[in-house]
Each structure stands twice: as structure tokens, then as C-alpha cells.
Specification:
alpha+beta, 3 domains, 7-stranded mixed beta sheet, 12 helices, globular
């Protein structure tokens, strides 16, 4: 398979490499904690304003400090231009917004932008009046010190930093009277593949608020009810200063999307806006709003489905940067035939069910865990083998080794599960060692289902243990409780060539466990491997490629000091070898 060259000046694929290092599950380019510092200043907001005006923001908004102490109002918005470039499962978005300071005095302000899930800012450009400010990446503490120093000197500047997950602020000092503020922010995100396609959403509708800090709250960010009561919501389709007919229309937007899926696209749909869709040579699809400068009275959503194939489909994108070449690879599952489904379902499994019964699992968590185990046992058939074990301060298996899933054995297992109680410590090493040390049974697909809240502190040691002992097993983690350790659960599944499922409510157990077993009981492609050109040292992620399950694509990234050329993806489809 030959890679498709991505000829953009952005360093998209480098950031994709970093994102995949975190399982394409959190954010691109080293995590969301990175700060984008401007060459000059930043505004330090009060905690109350952050909690009410910032955390409630649904779209890009510039908040200006009003004359009264502690009050912020939304600046009139003149226009919004959005350009989105999709490459495979990665979208790079460039947003340009223009605001106006209608006041007669210099003011401080903060631009608030809510990012989509799995996204991170990497560029910022701003023009305040006639001054142009260019962003650059800095460590968060250093960036804030730079800003405070510049602000004290009366200089204009800005900084982007994270206020809560996926919410960034770009703070600005010394916005002049009647100044126009133009802000350009760029970010990229990992798109989620589901139901044979992708969904992309861009937030547009805005509900500006202001909060008199001293009047309604004590200034603490943990008083949402008081802040809500103090907030004054106005028409979500208009911004202050543009609400009357004499002022003209406000919050206008123009959106253009370019899609290079790497695989043929079957359909593209704009859910809420009239859009022109044009298919270009080379597989690229262009989408633009039919009316320029549409009213931003609802969020923009675009969905596209990939043309179904009878076999797995693969695509690779490459980009040269400096003396290195970067590659992003994805393999998309096919739509299996009825005969293939029957063949997949006929594959016997050895399922090891592991449940955390430590003290942190008391209450609703252990109830959810017991229900999840019983549902897992119900999915087994007489051709399968299984075992169940619990761990707290010690590890206790139901049986010394896996046994056939006969009606009698399953009945005994369900009685054993119903008797589980939560107490003791969380000694996970013994449980993982026992679960991953089983002898491989020829002809069986070995799967370990690990149910826990992940309340552990020795994560790195556990990751090493999984990597060293996994063998041919697959490890699937199931998060239980109101706040499981998602970082551990996600990374453990990554090292275990499996997936992470979160169950936050008893009512979700059946649905979530059914979805999990629907995927893992019928792997479309097993033992997936990527064969790079001979003699080319390649750094890859993940090192061990997971199985290709129904509805879940496999993706990987690589970097090399030489051209990657053609690569070959191999695997077992049923009992037959497959390659592309």
C-alpha cells in the first residue's frame, strides 16, 4: 500500500503521532495542559468569572470587563469564518472571528473557545486595533509570567491556557475604545468512527452572560447555583450591541470543509445548514454553506459515511517535515456478510472475567460490577471456556483454570458472583498476573475482561506487566463507578490490544456490555501487523496493533528518517491470511 502525501505546511502528522501515543483518546500534541503564550501579556481572571462566564460558554466569545468591578459582558461579534481540513480521521480547524469594543475606554478581555473532545490548540494569531500578536507554545507557568510582565508594562498581548478540560481562554489586555479585535485560532482533533462513518460538529450558538462577582457569590468557583442565578442570559442568536435592527445583523458565519478520507465516501450530509457538496479529483470532497455569512443560530454538524467494502480497507497518509517522514495509517472494518458473521460467531473463546472487589468498589460500583459479570456470563456458549476471579488485598479465582461454559458451570459462576462483597485493598498485580498467565488453548480466542474503578497508584508497573505477559491474549477494561481512573483504564487497554468501556450507571450495564461483546466476539481481522520497508528504521505506535473489530477502525502512526514508500498490512481473517 502506497501512502498519500499530505502537502500542507502544518505539522499535523507529528501531532497525530503524539496523540496516538495517548491512544487517540485524549488530545493532540502532548495533552491539553499545554499553554500557547503570546509575545506579550495576559489577563488574570477571578475564579467566579471563570466559573460562570467561561465554563458556560458554548462557542467562541470575547468577554470584556465592564466599568463595574468584577463584571464581564460579551463583545459584539462581527463575523466568524471557519475552515476545516479533514485528513483520514484527523480534522484541522482554523477559526477567524472579529469582535468590536463599542466602549469609549480601554478594557481588558478574554476570548473563550470550547474545543471539541479529543482536540488541542496549537496556533493563535490576534490583531487588536493595529497591533498583531503571534502565538507560540510555552510551558504554562512561564507563559503566565511573560504575560504578567508585559501587562504591567502596558503592552498588548494574549495567552491561551486551559480553564477546564477542552476549554481554552485567550486573555487580552488594553483593548482600545472602538477597537476591532480579530482572533485566529487553530486546533486539531481526532474524529470518532461510528456506524460506518464520521461526525464533525462545530459550536456556533452563543448565550452571552455577565456575573457581578461580589453581588451574587463569595467568589468561589464551586457555587454553580449562585452563579447561574446571577447570570443574565440574552438571546442566544444575537450579541450585545447588535441586538437592534439599527445595528445590523450579528454573529454571521461562513464555513468551508475539505475532506480527504483516504477511502471512498458514500455520502455527506450537513445536518442543520444548506450546504453545497462537491467531489473533486483525487478523492477530496469540498463542503461549503450555500449562503455566505449564515446566521449562527445553531451548531454546524457534518456527517459522512465511507463506501462499504467486502473486505477491510486501508489508507495511509504521509508527510515530510525536516529530515523525517511521518505516516498515519488506518484500517477500516468491512460490512461482513451473513456467512462471515456466522463464521466469526463460530470461533470459540476463552474468556477470563476479572472483577475488583476492593473497598473503593463499595455501594453502587460493586452492584454494577456484579451485573456486568452476569451479563458477560450470559454471552458465553457451550463451545467457549471461562474463569472468574476477584481481587482486593489478595486474588481469588473461582477455579484453578478455565473450564467449558456448560450450563452447570455457568450456574455455579453466577452464584459465586452474586456472593461478591467489596472490601480490602487494591492489589492488582496478582490479578493481572493470574489472568494473563493462562496457557493458550489452540483454536481459542483468549480475552480478559477486567472490571474495576482503576483506583491504583502504581500504573507504570502495571503497564509493564501487561506488556510483558500479554502473549496472545486481549485485555478489555471496563470502568465502573462515578469517577473511574480513565487514564489507567485507557492505557491498560492500549497495552492489552483491547478497548475501554465506561459504565457510570446501573441502568447502562446491559447496553454497554452488549455493545462490548458485540464487538469482541467477532473480530474481523486478528493478529494485525504492519510490515514497513526492509532496512528502514521506523518508530511506530502502537507497537502491537490491536484486532480489527466490527465498527472499530485500527489506526497507527510512524516516523522514519527515510521515505517509507510502500507498506503492507497483514492479518488473519477467520482462518485465512489477509493482506493489503
Amino acid at each position: 500500500m502506497q501512502g498519500k502525501t499530505v502537502g500542507r505546511s502544518s505539522h499535523t502528522l507529528q501531532q497525530v503521532i503524539a496523540d496516538l501515543a495517548e491512544l487517540v483518546a485524549k488530545a493532540f500534541f502532548g495533552g491539553l495542559g499545554a499553554a500557547v503564550a503570546m509575545s506579550l501579556a495576559i489577563l488574570a481572571l477571578s475564579a467566579s468569572v471563570q466559573a460562570a462566564s467561561i465554563n458556560d460558554t458554548k462557542a467562541g466569545t470575547l468577554l470584556l470587563r465592564s466599568g463595574a468591578a468584577g463584571e464581564f459582558t460579551a463583545a459584539p461579534q462581527v463575523s466568524t469564518e471557519v475552515a476545516i481540513d479533514v485528513t483520514g480521521m484527523v480534522a484541522r480547524t482554523r477559526v477567524t472571528q472579529i469582535f468590536h469594543n463599542p466602549g469609549s475606554e480601554f478594557v481588558e478581555g478574554v476570548y473563550v473557545f470550547p474545543l471539541p473532545e479529543k482536540a488541542a490548540v496549537d496556533r493563535l494569531w490576534m490583531k487588536v486595533g493595529e497591533r498583531v500578536l503571534e502565538g507560540r507554545i510555552r510551558e504554562k507557568g512561564e507563559a503566565r509570567r511573560t504575560y504578567e510582565r508585559a501587562k504591567s508594562e502596558g503592552k498588548k498581548a494574549a495567552l491561551v491556557e486551559q480553564q477546564r478540560p477542552n476549554l481554552f481562554t485567550n486573555s487580552v489586555a488594553h483593548i482600545g475604545p472602538d477597537d476591532t479585535v480579530e482572533i485566529r485560532i487553530e486546533y486539531q482533533q481526532a474524529l470518532t468512527y461510528e456506524n460506518g462513518g464520521y461526525r464533525l460538529r462545530f459550536p456556533l450558538a452563543v448565550t452571552p452572560r455577565y456575573v457581578p462577582v461580589g453581588a451574587a457569590t463569595s467568589g468561589l468557583p464551586d457555587e454553580p447555583k449562585a452563579l447561574e442565578a446571577a447570570s443574565d442570559a440574552i438571546d442566544p442568536f444575537l450579541h450585545p450591541g447588535y441586538a437592534s435592527p439599527d445595528c445590523g445583523r450579528a454573529n454571521m458565519v461562513d464555513i468551508a470543509v475539505s475532506i480527504d478520507a483516504g477511502i471512498a465516501i458514500a455520502s455527506v450530509v450537513s445536518s442543520y445548514h444548506d450546504a453545497a457538496i462537491e467531489k473533486r479529483a483525487g478523492g477530496r470532497t469540498l463542503v461549503s454553506l450555500v449562503k455566505d455569512q449564515e446566521d449562527a443560530n445553531r451548531d454546524f454538524e457534518l456527517t459522512w459515511t465511507l463506501a462499504p467494502g467486502a473486505a477491510p480497507q486501508a489508507a495511509m497518509f504521509t508527510q515530510q517535515r525536516g529530515d523525517a517522514e511521518y505516516a498515519l495509517l488506518m484500517v477500516v472494518p468491512p460490512q461482513p456478510t451473513a456467512a462471515e458473521r456466522a463464521a466469526f460467531e463460530g470461533m470459540p473463546r476463552e474468556t477470563i472475567l476479572v472483577v475488583d472487589t476492593s473497598g473503593s468498589m463499595q455501594g453502587a460500583s460493586i452492584q454494577q460490577a456484579r451485573l456486568a459479570l452476569e451479563h458477560a456470563l450470559d454471552t458465553l456458549t457451550p463451545r467457549d471456556r471461562f474463569n472468574v476471579l476477584e481481587f482486593n488485598s489478595t486474588t481469588r479465582p473461582m477455579l484453578p483454570a478455565a473450564v467449558p461454559a456448560t450450563a452447570d458451570n455457568l450456574s455455579r459462576a453466577k452464584a459465586w458472583v452474586r456472593d461478591l462483597k467489596a472490601n480490602g485493598g487494591t492489589e492488582m498485580v496478582g490479578a493481572l498476573t493470574f489472568a494473563l498467565t493462562g496457557v493458550d488453548t489452540p483454536g481459542y480466542l483468549r480475552q480478559v475482561i477486567f472490571i474495576t474503578d482503576g483506583a491504583v497508584g502504581n500504573e507504570d508497573a502495571l503497564f509493564r506487566l501487561i506488556s510483558e505477559r500479554l502473549g496472545t491474549s486481549r485485555l478489555f477494561t471496563v470502568g465502573i463507578g462515578s469517577a473511574p481512573n480513565s487514564h489507567f483504564m485507557t492505557k491498560a487497554a492500549q497495552f492489552g490490544r483491547g478497548t475501554f468501556t465506561y459504565i457510570g450507571d446501573v441502568r447502562e450495564v446491559q447496553e454497554k456490555m452488549s455493545q462490548l461483546f458485540a464487538k469482541i466476539e467477532a473480530p474481523v481481522l486478528r493478529d494485525v501487523a504492519i510490515r514497513w520497508p526492509d532496512g528502514t528504521p521506523v518508530e511506530t505506535f502502537p507497537a502491537r496493533v490491536p484486532d480489527l473489530d466490527l465498527g472499530v477502525p485500527v489506526r497507527g502512526a510512524a516516523a522514519a528518517r527515510a521515505p517509507l514508500g510502500s507498506v503492507v498490512v497483514t492479518g488473519m481473517r477467520g482462518n485465512l491470511p489477509w493482506s493489503v
